[in-house]
Write a structure and sequence with these properties.
- The chain has 380 residues and is α/β, with parallel strands linked by helices.
- It folds into two domains: 246 residues, 3-Layer(aba) Sandwich (Rossmann fold); 111 residues, no CATH class.
- Helix content is 42%, strand content 20%.
- The chain contains twelve helices and twelve strands.
- The strands form two sheets. Strands 5-11-10-6-12 form a five-stranded mixed barrel, surrounded by five helices. A two-stranded antiparallel sheet has the order 7-8.
- The longest helix has 25 residues.
- It is elongated.
- It starts with a strand and ends with a helix.
Length: 380
């Protein structure tokens, strides 16, 4: 899954137009995301609104990362160009992001102490391939002119820049004279991605003004929605390619990179001793000699299955309707097992067979259900 964040409602709407099968996903703290599929390819996307500023964007980005465990994070919207040669409607893909408000004030002036985050290599390579092939332009609104696509730094601060001659404007242009555009959110998003094992992150901005005192005029000519639509078109093409790239990786490598196996077995021979080697531990831990005749506890296995189902729901591997139905069958099985009778165990097996059918698309959960059925049948 890819997470896409925007700051403004018009930016959100520009991305939303490229999605189908939308449904609301409510975070426990009240944040509302929408889950959908990229039109035409079915790849899943979570869309969220962060509001203005680097601080709220960092909070919501962190929340989205924790909620969805995405393979990449995109920030999409509009920005002001810092140089007159950059046209209105052009799309800027950040090579790196300056958090330009870091500094120290001394007697001879303000000295910059920025923080900088670079786009990851893979996202940069995919973005440049899209630029060379121009395939992304197919996602532009019908009849829209093809904008220029530019790669370069973006400066992210805490003020709306709308002057070419103010002291602040001159300082930004002199200190960050390689930056193509200026805005207020991407530094927060970049930092959140960096603190989550350097999650792949890209910033895509459409130019809606020149940050030169004419913002009111350009807004009046509807350059914000035009620029947002251009940025959204490129971002959706990038999201598609990032998802395909992630799906095509060998499953063993992806699993090794992101998590440990559900089962860790340590064997000691002769005088050797081992401890427990694991990350997060779910379910039972057994320490001692293994036995081929050891019978698994179906009640414990069922409790572990419920936990794994909840994690699969949070990771969006199981949709809400399937989760609700599966929870119902687990409840029937648990109640039937509590009767401690042959009839109850038979009833539990029937419920679990239904459950296995519901979870057939999630191989690991279906296998776990089969293991519970086997454990129950061993005592029938």
């Amino acid at each position: 899954m890819i997470v896409i964040l925007t700051a403004l409602d018009l930016e959100y709407q520009a991305v939303r137009r490229h999605l189908t099968d939308l449904r609301v996903h409510r975070h426990t703290a009240g944040t509302r995301f929408e889950l959908g599929c990229i039109a035409g390819d079915g790849h899943r996307v979570a869309l969220g609104l962060v509001g203005k500023g680097n601080h709220p964007s960092a909070v919501i980005a962190e929340r989205a990362i924790a909620e969805f465990s995405p393979s990449a994070l995109l920030f999409v919207g509009v920005a002001g160009a810092l140089w007159s040669g950059i046209g209105l409607g052009d799309v800027v893909v950040a090579t790196h992001v300056y958090a330009y408000h870091g500094g120290t004030s001394e007697d001879d002036g303000l000295k910059a102490r920025p923080r900088v985050w670079e786009i990851d290599h893979e996202s940069d390579q995919i973005a440049r391939h899209l630029y060379r092939t121009e395939t992304w332009t197919r996602r532009l609104p019908a009849g829209a002119a093809v904008p220029a696509l530019r790669f370069g730094p973006i400066a992210a601060g805490e003020v709306v820049q709308d002057s070419a001659i103010s002291a602040h404007a001159q300082w930004v242009r002199q200190t960050y004279n390689d930056a193509l555009a200026i805005e207020m959110e991407s530094a927060g998003v970049a930092q959140a991605a960096h603190h989550n094992r350097s999650l792949p992150m890209a910033v895509v901005r459409g130019i809606s003004d020149h940050a030169d005192g004419n913002k009111t005029a350009t807004d009046g000519l509807n350059w914000q929605p035009k620029a947002a639509a251009n940025a959204a078109a490129f971002a959706m093409a990038l999201a598609h390619e990032l998802t395909v790239e992630h799906e095509n990786r060998p499953a063993s490598k992806a699993k090794e990179a992101n998590s440990m196996s559900d089962s860790v077995k340590n064997v000691a021979r002769d005088n050797a001793r081992v401890g427990v080697q694991a990350g997060h531990i779910y379910g039972d831990v057994t320490i001692g000699h293994s036995s081929q005749n050891q019978v698994a506890d179906p009640v414990a296995q069922l409790a572990e299955l419920r936990d794994r189902l909840a994690r699969a729901r949070k990771a969006q591997e199981v949709d809400e309707d399937t989760f609700t139905a599966a929870e119902g069958e687990i409840a029937v099985a648990a109640e039937s097992l509590s009767e401690s009778t042959e009839a109850g165990r038979s009833k539990a097996v029937i419920a679990l067979k239904k459950l296995r059918g519901l979870l057939a698309d999630v191989a690991e959960l279906a296998a776990h259900v089969s293991a519970v059925i086997a454990a129950i049948r061993s005592v029938l």
